[in-house]
## 1
Amino acid sequence: MLYNFLRTILFCFDAEKSHNIALKALKILNSVGLLKLIFKSPVNAPVTVMGLQFQNRVGLAAGLDKNADYIDALANTGFGFIEVGTVTPKAQPGNEKPRLFRLPESNAIINRMGFNNNGVEHLINAVKNAKYKGTIGINIGKNFSTPVENAVDDYLISYEAVYNIADYVTVNISSPNTPGLRSLQHGDALRQLLSSLKLKQKELHLTTQRYVPIAVKIAPDLNAEEIQELAETFLNTEIDAVIATNTTFSREGVEGLPHENEQGGLSGQPVMASSTDIVKQFCKIFEDRIPVIAVGGIMSAEDAVEKIKAGAKLVQIYSGYIYKGPDLVHQCAKALVNIGS
C-alpha cells in the first residue's frame, strides 16, 4: 500500500526525473536505517550458479543503477544479487532527453537512454565504497564514439578494469539504443569478441587466482536459426552464462497507447511471453551446460516461477520493480525457494 501511494506521486513527474528522485530517497532512507524497518529482509535461500553463491534467485537487472551509486539501498529492498551498469570505459551523456517513457496501461517502459553513465572509474569507486557483501554483477558496453569494428577494445578495457571488484561481468551486446551494437550478436564479430574476452579472463585468472565469470545479455528479437547459431557460439567459447533478454523493438502489447511510437527498447509485461520463449529455446539447446538468467516482464511471483520452470537458474527484475515495488522482489524470492530447475 505504501509503495502504491508513493508511486502515484512519483508518476506525476517525468519518468527519468522520478527515477532519480526515488533512488536518492532510497539512499537517504537507507543511510538513516529506515529501509530495514520499511521493507522485509531479503529471503535467505542460497543457490549456486556460475560457481557463485546468490542469497536468493531474484536479482536486480542492469539499467536501474547505472553507476553503482545505490547498491546498499537496493540490496536492502530484498534482492539476492545486484547487477549494475551498463558502464562504458569513458563517461558519456547518453541520448537526448526525454528518453524514458512509461506505459502504465501495460506495465511497460520504453527507453532510449543510450548507455548514459559516469564511466568505469566512477563505478569502480562506487562498488568499492559499498557495504553490500552479496553478489555483484557489472554490465559493460561500448562507448557511443567507438566504432563497432573496434568494440572489442572497449569491452576488454572495462572487463579488465572491473575484474577485481566484480563477482561476474555481463557483456551487453543487445541494447537497441546504441547504433550497430546488436550486430555484435552475430557471426565473426561475436566470435572475435567472446574469444578475446575469454582469453583475457584466462590471463587474469592466472594472474589473480580469481575467476570472474562472463555472462552475455541477448536480445529477445531472435528467430530459431539465430538462437541456434548464438547457442553454438556460446558453447564453443565456453561462456559462463546467458542473460535472456534485453528490451525489444516490438510494440506488441502496447498498440494504441501513448508513447507507443517512441524510439527505443520496450520492457515490462508485454515482453514476458517472448522473453520466456527465448529462455526455453536456449535451455533446451544448452542442456544445463550453460546456465540462463531470465529477465523480461516479471510482474508477479507466478511470472518468476514460469521463468524458472522454463529452465532459468536465476531471474532479474527491473520494470516490475518500478510498477510493483520491493514487495514484488520478496514475493518472487519466496515463491522460488522450493522451485527446482
## 2
Amino acid sequence: MKAIASGDLTLGILGGGQLGKMLIEAASNWNIQCHVLDPDADCSCAHMAHTFVQGSFKAYDTVYNFGKNLQKITIEIEHVNVDALMQSQKEGKSIYPKPEVLQIIQDKGKQKSFYAENGLPTAEFTLLSNLQEVKSNIENGSIKFPFVQKSRTAGYDGKGVAVIRSAADMDKLLEGACVIEQLIDFEKELAVIVARDTDGKTTCFPAVEMEFHPEANLVEFLLAPAHVSETIANEAKKIAEQCITAFGLTGILAVELFLTKSGAVLINEVAPRPHNSGHHTIEANLVSQYEQLLRTIFEIPMGDTTPRDHAVMVNILGEAGYTGTALYEGLKECLAMPGVFVHLYGKKVTKPFRKMGHVTIIGADATEIKATAQKVKEMLKVVA
C-alpha cells in the first residue's frame, strides 16, 4: 500500500464562495492545504484558505500563475479561464474537471449538443446567435410559446434564463447567443450527484427533489431522497452515470433533471463541481459530496453514499428589500431545534435573494422534517 506524503495533500481551488468554504471544511479533516483564488477579498474562503490570492479567475495570467506551484487544481465555479488551465495541464498539472470538459459545460449550447451526440435524453432545443434571430423565429412560427431561453455562457443561479410564456413576456428576452427549449411540462425537478474516479468507477448519491422559489429561480426546498418511485430513481441514477462517463470526467458532476408528466427523465443541465443539490449530504449521508470530490482527486477509494436519514434542505436567501450588512433574525431559535443544522456562508453583505447560507433538517419522518423546514424558512430571515 502506497503511503501518502503530507506534502502531496495540497489543493488549489478556483473560486472562494460557499462551495469552496465547505470543500475546505471537508479537507481540514485530512489536513489538506487548500489554496484559493477569488476576486473578492471578503469572500467566504478568504480567511479559511491556507493561502488566499485575490485576483480574477477569468484572467489567463492570474489563473496560470496561481497554479504554477500546485499539482492539483479544482473549481467551485465554472466561469474560469479554460485556456490557462489547458496550459497548466500540458505542463503536467492535474485539473478537476479536465479543461476540455469544462469548455463544453461552460457553453450551454455545446452542452446540449453533447447530450444529443451521445444519446443522452434531453429536451429538444434550437441554437440561435442573437436576439434578432430569436424574434424572427417567433414571427415565422419556428419558435412557439411557451419556451425557455438560456444564455449560452455566463448563466448562474437562475441568471441568464428567461421563461417566455406568451407575447406579453417578450420584454424578458435576453441578448446574445442562446439556447431555446420548449417549456417542459414536468412533474418534478430532480438532481443526482455522481462521482467518478480515475479508474472509471462511478458512485451516485440518491436522487433528490427540488422545489424552486417562484421569483428568484433558486432552490427553496430540497427533499432527500426524492419522492419518486424506485423505477424513476434508478433511471435518474443511470442517466447520471452515463453522463459522467460520456464526459470522461474524474471528480463529481451534479446532473439536474426533469421528470415529465409522461414519466420521462430528461437532463436539464450539469455542473462539474459541488452543487446546491448536494449540501444536505454533509449531515444526511455517510459521505458528503465534498469528501467524495476529495476522494476522487486524491485517488482515495470513494465513500459510501448511503443516507443516514431523510433530509430537507432550505436555502437561506437575503430578504427582498434589504441590502447592507447582514443581520440574522431567528438564528438562535433555529439552532435550538433538534435535527436542524445551520450553515452560514460568511458573506458580510446581504442582497435580495443572495444565497447567505443553508439549513439541513434530518429525521426519520419525511413529513415531520418538511414541516420543520417550513418553520425554519418562516423564522430565519436575513435582513440589513
